[in-house]
Amino acid sequence: MNKLLTNCPLFKGLEAKEIDEIFNEIFSKVRIYNKGYIIAYQDEEVKNFMIVVEGTARGEMVDFSGKTVIIEEIVSPRSLAPAFMFGARNIYPVNIVSQTDTKILQIQKSEFIKMMQLNEKLLVNYLNNVSGRAQFLTQKLKFLSFNSIKGKLAYYILNLAKKGELKYVVLPVSQAKLAELFGVTRPSLGRALREMHNDGIIEVKAKDVKIVDKRALVELLK
Fold first, then answer.
1. Could you tell me the pTM of the whole model?
2. How does DSSP assign 91-152, residue by residue?
3. What is the Cα–Cα distance from 160 to 217, expressed in whole angstroms?
């Protein structure tokens, strides 16, 4: 497992031998969760630093209409809610659900602090990770602030196109998956894409998207 952890952002730059030495000094445990199991509930206190070492989990929340919105997928070997380990409200901001049968490495907070004291690289990696998560969540909140599906699509496509610098982009996921990420139905997403295509804003062929009218695309953000 420690060889796998060399690919985890927290252990970036460390050899498997160094990771072995660190884990010889601390207590940790591994838990297995079946597909669909809620690993942690929204507003539950974060007591352990957790890393997905096998499988996939996802952060999701239920909006006021009862619709489930996927915030992020977490694949092995990445950590769960690293930015919420500390602070006055160190609670999970969303439900963490196992998307597949998932193996989780758990490290108690006191043992995690001990880890940070054992190796400076770990501390720097953790701080960089937390900063990156804060930036990601800021972007995600901005995305969710768009009420219309077209607004969400415009923001998503422009980000894929590096703020519109590129003319062609490829959707990294299927339209069904995209609808799930947006918290909308697949037909509604497809209809919005067709309307944007027919209005001459974009051209869509399967996963290939061409930005035809960047100005009109930006207008959908307003």
1. 0.64
2. B-SSEEEESSSEEEEEEEHHHHHHHHHH-HHHHHHHHHHHHHHHHHHHHHHHHHT--SHHHH
3. 13
C-alpha 32: how far from chain center: 21
Which part of the chain has CATH 2.60.120.10? 2-144
Q: What is the CATH number of domain 149-219?
A: 1.10.10.10
Distance between CA atoms of residues 9 and 79, nearest Å: 8
Reported as a single tens digit per residue, the pLDDT across 11-56 is 999 999 999 999 999 999 999 999 999 999 999 999 999 999 999 9
Fold type of domain 2-144:
Jelly Rolls (2.60.120)
All CATH 1.10.10.10 domain ranges of the chain, comma separated, are 149-219
Query: What is the residue type of 115?
Result: M
Half-sphere exposure of 22 (CA within 13 A, CB side): 27
